[in-house]
Design brief:
Layout (H helix, E strand, L loop, with lengths): L10 E6 L3 E7 L5 E8 L4 H16 L6 E6 L2 E2 L6 E3 L6 E3 L1 H9 L3 E5 H12 L8 E6 L3 E7 L2 E2 L36 H11 L8 H8 L6 H9 L3 H25 L3 E5 L10 H11 L10 E4 L6 H16 L2
Parallel strand pairs: 1-4, 4-8, 9-12, 12-13
Antiparallel strand pairs: 1-2, 2-3, 5-6, 6-7, 9-10, 10-11
Length: 324
């Protein structure tokens, strides 16, 4: 079948995470018609077989025309090769060609943040934006940039790595090999690390502090956010610190790109009521020329976890129609 009987191509968008693969059939309005999910294998051959099975499972109930993959890693400028993905087994792998041969369908790769911003631009929070930055805050920070309605990938397809802007010289160690990266102070991982650093510095009793003392290794960003929602004094302080770093980082982004819109996405965005107003204030105070320039609107995602799949499917559809 085709989208709403309209004859528009149906495409599959696949979000390849370090833990799970989620594949969705998406129509031309951005609506998700069906989703299948499976664990992410740890070898390249097994991963490609799992992607093959997921698409074929969906193809039993839908007439599919193309596939888009949202990959958390470096994708070549022509969107055919995964150069490097820290949580996936591909290294300089011609994934699009191999899967096209297996499936008999055109396959397009895209960085997951690029896919997400495209979905938000076409169907969600970035609709009507011109120069848009997406900041996806989860375990780390992913980012994407839309300039005059066009995705900006950089010369080699890896821009923009905003999460690895250094905000604290000789600061916290980062998995990228540098120190003091923005994501080390403004992410789900950072929430937990900041909470551990602040234990014992507050006179008010804190259930979160007791949990940390009992088992610091079990702490997660979600636990911190939940505690802040409940008014735990330590968690509230952690969220205030997070909001400060988010606002300061967005001021850097504003100085560099001067966007009219910023979309906050990723798992931490679900806790936005705990930090977003304070982050907006910090951004407004820290951006160069504050008080004498228009400020970017800052919104949270409308499409949530589906954004990567919807965007990858829509980009695959666009390429198919263009004949690429």
């Amino acid at each position: 079948m085709t989208a709403s009987g309209s004859g528009s191509p149906l495409t599959v968008g696949i979000d390849i995470g370090g833990t799970n693969i989620r594949a969705s059939v998406v129509d031309s309005t951005g609506s998700v018609l069906e989703t299948v999910q499976c664990p992410t294998p740890h070898s390249a051959a097994a991963l490609e077989s799992a992607l093959d099975r997921a698409v074929r499972e969906l193809a039993r109930r839908h007439t599919l025309d193309a596939v888009g993959l949202a990959v958390a890693g470096f994708v070549s400028q022509d969107r055919s090769t995964v150069r490097f993905a820290p949580h996936l087994p591909w290294r300089d792998a011609p994934v699009a060609k191999r899967l096209t041969e297996r499936l008999g369908l055109p396959v397009l790769l895209e960085h997951d943040a690029n896919a997400a911003i495209w979905a938000e631009y076409r169907f969600g929070a970035a609709a009507g934006g011109h120069n848009v930055v997406l900041v996806a805050i989860g375990t780390g920070i992913g980012a994407a940039l839309l300039i005059d309605g066009h995705l900006y990938r950089g010369t080699y397809g890896v821009a923009p790595e905003l999460g690895h802007l250094q905000v604290v010289p000789q600061g916290r160690d980062c998995g990228c090999g540098k120190q003091g990266c923005w994501e080390r102070y403004c992410s789900g991982t950072a929430l937990a690390e900041t909470a551990i650093e602040l234990v014992g510095t507050d006179a008010e009793p804190s259930a979160l502090a007791r949990d940390i003392v009992a088992d610091p290794g079990a702490l997660t960003g979600r636990r911190v956010a939940d505690a802040a929602h409940d008014g735990d004094p330590l968690a509230v302080r952690v969220m205030a610190d997070f909001a400060r770093w988010l606002g300061l980082g967005l001021a850097f982004v504003g100085d560099i790109f001067d966007p009219d819109l910023v979309v906050i996405a990723g798992g931490v965005s679900s806790s936005a009521p705990l930090f977003l107003d304070e982050a907006r204030e910090e951004y407004a105070a820290a951006v160069t020329g504050h008080g004498h320039r228009p400020l970017a609107r800052i919104r949270t995602t409308q499409l949530g976890e589906a954004a990567g799949m919807v965007g990858a499917a829509e980009l695959a559809r666009t390429a198919l129609i263009a004949g690429h």
